[in-house]
Amino acid sequence: MNVRRRLISGSAVAAATALGLGSLSACSTDSAAAGNTGKFDVVASFYPMTFLAEQIGGSHVHVTSLTTPGQEPHDLEISPQQIALLEQSDAVLYLKNLQPSVDDAVAQSPVGTKIDAASLTTLEEHGNEVGGHAAEHDTHEGEESGGKDPHIWLDPVRYAQVAEGVGKAFEKADPDHAADYRKNTAALVKQLDQLNTRFKAGLANTKTKVFITTHAAFGYLAERYGLTEEAINGLDPESEPSAARVKDLEKLAGADGVTTVFYETLVSDKTAKTVANDAGLKTDVLDPLEGITKKSRGTDYLSVQEANLKALQQALGAK
């Protein structure tokens, strides 16, 4: 495969120069850059996209993530350096309407292959009950304007559909390695199918079907396995719930046998503990997999999802 050497656009050079990166040149093969590495250079917007690119691309790709481990992806603001690196890449893999600054950068970028994961499966509108958006995200106009819940990766079935679409896009953009991309995609889809089977069996018989979260990221997962997600309404991650909402959750918990309020790893557990203490419930982690950190209960998408399954089984009283 020929090393990809492309001219850096004027805006990319300006951005690089502003950051003291003047050493970047049109023929740069600096492995620290997103482009010109001699591999198929992919920029991924955040962890679920990074995981797909790495699993499907294997040894043929060089993946750069725009969101660093531990960073809340919704809050990402693209830096001039990232814009410069994006413009040198072969492909960008992102999820439209999740990160507005990424959407803007991709729209203005000359990158040849733009893969929007949201276009590779079906999206639904969700509220705070059954599934959908947490109130903590209500300030993010990029998500709300579309009216669709972007958290498709937490449903193994939809995530597998996205994987298949990404694989086809890689084959088209880098035909020299199409056979390997097909093989890797098939292997990943098989793993996701097996994960779906374990979720289906593991959550089939439970004492309750209702769970409470501070972050309403699990709407697709809830619908897939016949569960109901109740997200704490009208709150951002750091605020305390209203007395009325806590009272509602106490009633719900008592009526539906709810035992646990789930919180996530990338934001404070203050809200969950406040509700749990007032309602006499326990707290636990249900990871929305927006990033992998040392606090994660696993090292990758598959292992963290297994931990999520165990947490749900325990909270719902799996038989």
Q: Specify Rg, calculated over alpha carbons.
A: 21 Å
Shape: globular
Question: In percent, how helical is the residue content?
Answer: 40-55%
Structural class: alpha/beta
Describe the protein's architecture and organization.
This protein is of the alpha/beta class and 319 residues long. The chain contains eleven helices and nine strands. It has helices at residues 10-18, 47-57, 80-88, 100-108, 141-144, 156-173, 178-202, 219-224, 243-256, 270-279, 301-316; strands at residues 40-44, 61-65, 91-94, 113-116, 129-130, 210-213, 228-231, 260-263, 282-285. The strands form two sheets. Strands 5-7-6-8-9 form a five-stranded mixed beta sheet, sandwiched between helices. Helix 4 links the parallel strand 3 (91-94) and strand 4. Helix 1 runs antiparallel to helix 3 (80-88) and helix 6 runs antiparallel to helix 7. It is globular. The model is unreliable at 1-33 and 130-146 (pLDDT under 50).
Task: Describe the secondary structure blueprint for this structure.
Layout: H1 10-18, E1 40-44, H2 47-57, E2 61-65, H3 80-88, E3 91-94, H4 100-108, E4 113-116, E5 129-130, H5 141-144, H6 156-173, H7 178-202, E6 210-213, H8 219-224, E7 228-231, H9 243-256, E8 260-263, H10 270-279, E9 282-285, H11 301-316
Parallel strand pairs: 1-2, 1-3, 3-4, 6-7, 6-8, 8-9
Antiparallel strand pairs: 5-7
Helix pairs in contact: 1-3, 2-6, 6-7, 7-11
